[in-house]
Each structure stands twice: as C-alpha cells, then as structure tokens.
Amino acid sequence: MTTHALQDTSFTRPDQELINRLAKLPAANIGDAVDRLGVADSAIQAVWPGAKIAGPAFTVWTRPGDNQGIHEALKLAQPGDVIVVAGGGDESRALLGELIGERAINLGIAGFALDGAARDAEALGEIGMPVFARAVTPAGPYKNGPHRLGGPIAFGGVPVLPGDIIIGDSDGIVVIPSEQATAVAEAAEAVFADETNRRASIIAARGQ
C-alpha cells in the first residue's frame, strides 16, 4: 500500500523582497486587504507568545494525528519555507514538538502552520521556532501515513496552494495567494498607513 504521494514540490516561490514587505505588516491589515477571505480559523494560534511567521507555503496533507508527512517535508522543503499541514483539525495528538523544531531550525525552515496540534510549546519558544497550531497536547503522533506533499490543501477553512504566502502573528494566520501577493502588499500597506494616521489623530485629540 502506498503511504504517500509526492506532487510538485518544485513550485515557484515568491520574491523574498515581497515576503519581507508583507512580514512587516500586521496580519490584521493583510486580512483587511484580502477582504477577510484568506484568514484561517481563529483557533489556529501561535503556541508561544511573540511567534511570527512569513514565507511561502510548503503543503502537507496528512492523516489526523500522523506526522510521517512532516518528516518527508523536511527532506524537501527549502530554507525560508513555511510547512503548512492539513491535519484534519485533530487535537488529540501532536504533529510535532521540540525535536522536529530543532531539525527545522538547522534546515532554515521559517515555521510551521498546523491544522492540528503541537507539543513542547515552551521549548519551541526557547529555541525560537515559530509554530501555529489548533491545540497543544502532550500526546505524541502516529508515524504511519498516509500523506500527500506539494498539492492543494484546506487549512483552517482556507485553500492553500504551494507557494502561497503565509503570514502569522499574535492575531493568527493569513494566507495570500501567490499571484495576488504584490497587489495585497500594496493594499495592506495602504491600510497600515491609514490606520497609523487615524491612530495619531485620536492620540492628538486626547491631548487637547
């Protein structure tokens, strides 16, 4: 029985300068710029305070509670990628913890976004590996498959294709379709500038 199927992991990744532009913006402003349609389920949050991610999606579709696909993804993902896992929203078993986090740091992975659970949250924070997940649990994963790599997935109610840009901060995760990334960056920068000016006006009025 085949336990996995490799699709296209040689996808085109967005320009790093564009990713850096988006990384400077709050996820909320980007969410406004994509008309709130790319915002993942609010239950998917950073597992440690202050975690942020920005990078192209390397997609994994796995059986709930099974991390064989994540191990395979680590062999194929490129530095700067965000490994995005469609894990069926399962909260009963952690898809990764500190050991995978340490491996990912060595490989230059930008972070993980899990529609599933993680563990070792405090240790992941100590080593600085950004992980966003639906839950935290001490229970470990299965490692039997099946899984699919490099194909379209559903993540927290949002479609994700390989190479789409993933932005995560303290508000949650936003998915930006790669072909729309430049327009979204321009729109989100405009939202940020508008909110900055409005905030300054409110503060100035408070002092009068």
UniProtKB/TrEMBL annotation:
EC class (word): lyase
Keywords: Magnesium, Metal-binding, Methyltransferase, Transferase
Residues engaged in binding Mg(2+): 120
A UniProt-annotated Pfam family: RraA-like
Cofactor(s) it depends on: Mg(2+); a divalent metal cation
Highest taxon in the source lineage: Bacteria
Binding site for substrate: 97-100, 119
Single GO biological process annotation from the record: methylation
Transmembrane segments: none
Catalyzed chemical reaction(s): oxaloacetate + H(+) = pyruvate + CO2; 4-hydroxy-4-methyl-2-oxoglutarate = 2 pyruvate
EC numbers on record: 4.1.1.112, 4.1.3.17
An MF annotation (GO) of this entry: methyltransferase activity
InterPro entries: RraA/RraA-like (IPR005493), RraA/RraA-like_sf (IPR036704)
Protein family: Belongs to the class II aldolase/RraA-like family.
Role noted for this protein: Catalyzes the aldol cleavage of 4-hydroxy-4-methyl-2-oxoglutarate (HMG) into 2 molecules of pyruvate. Also contains a secondary oxaloacetate (OAA) decarboxylase activity due to the common pyruvate enolate transition state formed following C-C bond cleavage in the retro-aldol and decarboxylation reactions.
Subunit organization: Homotrimer.
Name of the protein in its database record: Putative 4-hydroxy-4-methyl-2-oxoglutarate aldolase
